[in-house]
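Budget justification aside, the reviewers requested a transparent look at the raw inputs and outputs of the sequence design task funded under Objective 1. We therefore reproduce one unedited record. The lines immediately below are the structure tokens for a 282-residue chain.
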């Protein structure tokens, strides 16, 4: 018998199953990647690197979100901040029958309309679409893997508990955060400080209102990670929470039994937490 080496087992991530990564060129001449899914909802997500976010006020960010939401197909905007920079993600519904049936149809529409999301006259925004390769690298970094992600998106190690999620040696805790302007500003700046660089991710989530006369809804997702143990993770969590006032801490709630979903949703890769409501069995 020929000797052989058994490969390490790999695992699928339910929230990323059936997620397709494609690429096209928009009407302004920029290549862009798009994440397309069919379940639990027919949607597509595009992402932009944001170079101006630290100089933007809350009012300017809100104006950008509201400008994007003028497209009636927009489901959510997620502004994700980490120590390496900021990414704005926009998820849209695949509205027509052709768009739901054929991936190329939604990509064609996005190619025509994409500049209206980032090339704005009303708001001072410096943003560039992420290519498919950049999106893949972004997700690979978050999952701490160097293996190819597509067409089979798998990871080598997953440990999912009620209070944290571990993927390929990185352990993290995710929190749901109620809307608060001061807390949003604090957390966005906190991720860039030396003390918390690389361990804190803050995602500002905006869901447009169904009624165009309403403002829409804001919430947030805070993810804190550590490279070694649960004990170290909880120490970092305590240190981060200590930066907030007692009132601000009341707005933060650990996503018990939904840690995997919280971690992935904070990346802004089209995993909307309200669409993935499955909880971890005790």
């Amino acid at each position: 018998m020929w000797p052989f080496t058994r490969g390490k087992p790999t695992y699928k991530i339910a929230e990323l199953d059936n997620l397709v990564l494609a690429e096209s060129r928009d009407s302004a001449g920029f290549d862009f990647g798009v994440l397309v899914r069919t379940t639990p909802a027919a949607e597509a997500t595009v992402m932009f690197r944001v170079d101006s976010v630290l100089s933007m006020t809350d009012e300017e960010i809100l104006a950008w979100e509201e400008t994007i939401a003028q497209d009636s197909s927009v489901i959510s905007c997620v502004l994700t901040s980490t120590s390496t920079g900021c990414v704005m993600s926009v998820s849209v519904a695949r509205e027509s029958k052709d768009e739901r049936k054929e991936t190329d149809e939604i990509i064609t529409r996005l190619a025509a309309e994409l500049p209206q999301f980032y090339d704005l006259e009303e708001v001072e925004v410096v943003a560039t679409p992420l290519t498919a390769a950049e999106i893949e690298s972004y997700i690979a970094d978050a999952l701490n893997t160097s293996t190819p992600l597509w067409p089979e998106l798998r990871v080598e190690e997953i440990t999912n508990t009620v209070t944290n999620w571990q993927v390929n040696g990185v352990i993290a805790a995710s929190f749901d955060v109620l809307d608060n302007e001061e807390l949003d500003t604090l957390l966005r700046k906190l991720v860039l400080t030396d003390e918390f660089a690389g361990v804190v991710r803050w995602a500002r989530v905006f869901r447009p209102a169904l009624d165009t006369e309403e403002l829409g809804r804001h919430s947030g997702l805070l993810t804190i990670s550590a490279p070694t143990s649960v004990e170290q993770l909880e120490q970092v969590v305590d240190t981060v929470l200590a930066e907030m006032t007692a009132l601000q801490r009341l707005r933060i709630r650990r996503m018990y039994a939904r840690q995997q979903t919280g971690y992935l949703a904070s990346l802004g890769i089209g995993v909307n937490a309200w669409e993935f409501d499955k909880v971890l069995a005790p």
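The two ends are 44 Å apart (CA to CA). The longest strand covers residues 217-226. Computational costs for records of this kind are itemized in the attached budget.
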